[in-house]
Design brief:
- The chain is of the alpha+beta class and 167 residues long.
- The chain contains seven helices and four strands, in the order H-H-H-H-E-E-E-H-E-H-H.
- It has a four-stranded mixed sheet with strand order 1-2-3-4, with helices on both faces.
- It starts with a helix and ends in a 6-residue tail after the last helix.
Length: 167
């Protein structure tokens, strides 16, 4: 699986690298789905907007060409609507509340933080989801597929650089 190649460091000999692996695991636990956000994420899942529910009904269970999405995923101090870890893709559905000045600032800060982690953020409006769900799904699939192709190229490049593959 590509995500395993990109996100899990290779096992290191006990004498070296064990500390680095522990630090990576600790850092990941502090970035994704922090325990102190569990109630908030659950609240968001249980009180999803109609547009979020509609989109989730076609994203869940790997229905979009096998891409696995999670909903209301914690990323740092933020919560993203939908997240595909395999390709580091966040999908946001913006309703009327996202048009206030305060929410625009919050969304911009959230997007900047998430993108610094190498996660691509894609935004759609409620209207997009209601009136053009097929187009939204096509866009998501296109971006996810492009990111998967790029990540496979990177993974192969890493193997070649480490001398694990003869060409």
């Amino acid at each position: 699986m590509v995500s395993e190649v990109l996100h899990k460091p290779p096992p290191a000999p006990p004498s070296e690298g064990a500390e680095v692996f522990s630090i990576v695991v600790l850092a990941m636990s502090k970035i994704f789905n922090r325990k102190n956000q569990k109630r908030l994420r659950k609240h968001f899942r249980n009180n999803a907007t109609e547009a979020e529910s509609k989109l989730w009904s076609v994203l869940k269970g790997k229905q979009l060409q096998g891409f696995k999405f999670r909903r209301q995923q914690g990323v740092g101090k933020y919560v993203v609507d939908f997240y595909c870890p395999m390709v580091k893709l966040s999908v946001e559905v913006d309703g009327a509340t996202h048009w206030t000045q305060r929410e625009r600032i919050h969304d911009a800060e959230k997007e900047e933080f998430v993108e610094k982690l190498g996660i691509c953020v894609v935004r759609f409006t409620n209207t997009d989801v209601y009136e053009n769900l097929e187009g939204v799904l096509e866009d998501i699939h296109k971006i996810a597929s492009e990111r998967l192709s790029k990540s496979r190229g990177i993974a192969i490049e890493q193997v070649v650089r480490k001398g694990g593959l003869e060409l």
